[in-house]
Amino acid sequence: MHRICTLSAALLLAMLAxxxxxxxxxxxxxxxxxxxxxxxxxxxWQSAISTAASGNLLGAMIEVERLMDDPRFERLxxxxxxxxxxxxxxxxRMQGEPVLxxxxxxxxxxxxxxxxxxxxxxxYLELADxxxxxxxxxxxxxxxxxxxxxxxxxxxxxxxDQTLREQPPRRLALLQALFDNGWKGDGPEPSRFWLTLAxxxxxxxxxxxxxxxxARIDTxxxxxxxxxxxxxxxxxxxxxxxxxxxxxxxxxxxxxxxxGLLDSSIDAELAAFSFAQLLAGxxxxxxxxxxxxxxxxxxxxxxxxxxxKWVAWLLQHRMMALRRLxxxxxxxxxxxxxxxxxxxxxxxxxxxxxxxxMLSVTGHAQQAQALLADLEGLLPYGEALRAYLQFTTxxxxxxxxxAEQARAKIISxxxxxxxxxxxxxTDEGDLDGAAAxxxxxxxxxxxxxxxxxxxxxxxxxxxxxxxxxxxRHWRALKQRDDVRAAIARVGRIEQYPLFSxxxxx
Length: 505
Hints:
The protein has 505 residues and is mostly helical. It has helices spanning 9-17, 40-53, 57-69, 78-94, 98-111, 116-128, 132-145, 154-163, 168-181, 191-203, 210-214, 220-228, 245-262, 268-280, 283-298, 305-324, 328-342, 348-361, 365-373, 380-396, 400-412, 418-428, 431-443, 448-455, 468-479, 481-490, and strands at residues 457-459, 495-499.
């Protein structure tokens, strides 16, 4: 089953947002709040901030090193020392000087242990050193001490969340800290995180906290998951418009459409709006509003670092819309564009795998296999996904040897990624084996929610020829008595007028 699925100005702005209060105003005042004239030392800090904001990190690094070594640093208040050292540590980290960055950030933390921005900067250093446990501790502390929502992107939070899949109590602590902090993720409400939090609260006897968590979940796929999972029956009124998936989808589109009218930026909200349109079946609209963007990329224009991530996702959603309109050549072109822009972002692997899948289903198996072979540094789940795509691509091109090699890899990773093992068995028509895996997923507290979501009856599009057999097997798998009994024990299947993210399932 094919599932067609660097430094930035934003970082500099985030750094400036936490600059020392006495040096952060622009234009620089000639007097401080007390009426005392700004000292040469304070003016020098202002100059360093301006240098960093201009993008000249090397110049800013030279300036902050000199300022940190100046004896006058010790005359600052504890708060000023902490904020100044944090600024210096941020510049050093961004300039690729982790040892110096840690020295400055440790100095900042010594002056003010609860400086949330310092804790976040140290978190990034620990992540760079592959110290996830320390990074998680620092993020929890930053959430606790910050008076405003922490500036952490969803990629970072999601990575740390996934590292804790086998440590539910600690995962619960991390997600609860983010929730209590009011964290907003990349822009739209990060409902997928709160869905996991609600599930962990239920599983760990914290039912009194669930209603507050559910109050921040109003996106259609998460609402469908809540409705389908019997663990949430005491909290979800399935007859209420509040938990009506179609109404939720309309609310989401209305909110995101208004956000787009008020702000023309290419950002997370615009990408979320295009995905909401996919769920609603508004494929022509997606193609129309991304036409200018695709033309711009085709002509060689490149987005800013801050916009590249969202441009790539908009192009991927364009690719999905075109595929649903059966405009396969244009869909492949959009996938190529998304992968090209995606190489500038943290989602590079995702876009590369999507392009490989599109190449395979459009008869370019050799190109697909070459793309997949070049991927490096994958975690076990990513290795399993690559192996599954290699498996389906080999089947499409009747390459028996390659299919067997990929099959062996999928089997070796079946504990880390049971989804792709189940998909492989479904593709092969081994419904007994696929049913056993599916039932185990339904019985797993961790896997149950996503598994139930995949089983719901949503609207679908015609299967591509290469997917037709697998899709038939999937529908037969859902109708098995043992599978239906397993579903009934823990959840339910309902029909929804929304379109499936899986396109033909």
